[in-house]
Amino acid sequence: MVTRRYILRSPLALLLLALPASAAGQGASSVESPDSVSVLVGHGPKGFFIRTPDDRWLLQLQFRLQFRLSHPRDSDPVTFDDYLGDPRTSLEINRARLKVGGHGYRPWLRYYMEYELQASNLLNFELMLERYTRASARVGQWKAYYSRERIISSGRQQLADRSLINRYFTLDRQQGISLFGRLGEGTLGDVSYWVSAFTGMGRGGTVNDDDHLMYMGRIQWNPFGRVVGFAGSDLARSQPTLSLSLAGATNQSQCTRFSQAGCGSLEGFEDADPGQYRVDQAILEAAFLWSGVSFMNELHWKRIDDTIDGGLTTLVGQYTQLGFFLHEAWEWVPEPLELAARWSTLRPDVDVDGNRHDEVSAGVNWFFSGHDNKLTAEFSWLVLQGVSDLEEGGRFRLQWDIQF
Predict the structure, then answer these.
(1) Rounded to two decimals, what is the model's pTM?
(2) Dist. CA 387–CA 382, nearest whole Å
(3) Pick from 204, 233, 216: which is nearest to 145 by CA?
(4) How far apart are CA 153 and CA 355, in angstroms?
(5) Per-residue pLDDT band at 366 (split at 50, 70, 90)
(6) DSSP string covering 178-209, please?
């Protein structure tokens, strides 16, 4: 990390110092600054920063780009028609992000904003009060802390993208308020928890479509007194670290799925009326790290109750993911090289025999500078089975992820 001290006298410099106050809910015009302000400027793990010597004010700025080559398709196929489409090779800027974060007034009054430049979407805007480890609060819009796979940033993933089942079970980004914390830190009873209430309409959903909110809870046991962080791969070559989690959510709205686009519909649930679907879901999750080996597993259950037309639909799914830095076993293998594999399976309706969707993926990562600069190559085999139909096919993706 490089840090330098500067004396800033320009209006632009004073404006940059005022940004944390604006993010904390107070306009820049109300911040009184002297003619000369001494600040620290440099680059750290979260990008470029400007910080006052007393650490009361911090502004961090980071840019991220993700380039992806794919064939014969990029996204996961959902229907039989998706498998039958003409094969195409694509090269795209899959993600282009601007991240702004820091704190204002006190180090424990934090803020964070994230903007997708390509799609012109405001993804995150959060204000966090984190003075006490045992109990903190968050308000704004962010990824609901429900499933590990979705919480992990797309720039911190172990394979090119999330598993096949993510589309069906993620809560994605929601607007609301949350209480979270960690109890018994460093002991056998080390527990992390999250309790949240959301509008339940996904990204950009400021108003619910009825008088029901989404409620979510997650509890995570860390038996070794250490937490498995929300990132893929064991870059740190960790001591044995295990996290076991149970989470649940309930919501009534017209939404049966969520994505970066916000509220959406699963196949067969389109053209919904406000408050039509009661959705209850739960997840059992495990994550483990040890000396370059990483393991993640999620078991999902979801029930959709049509409160207008009647009918219950139950979905189940799971994924298991493994990663290993071969250098830990054979020193002649380059240290930045990691192998990873994943198996995921989905039953979109447990009452219909023979319907399922499967994914088997294998990948290799080369870390130039951790997750901040890495190259990922991935091959997947996807199988969609219906009552009387079956389609399958392969997919290759090559991805470069870099942030600075």
Answers:
(1) 0.89
(2) 17
(3) 216
(4) 31
(5) very high
(6) EEEEEESTTSTT-EEEEEEEE-SS-TT--S-S
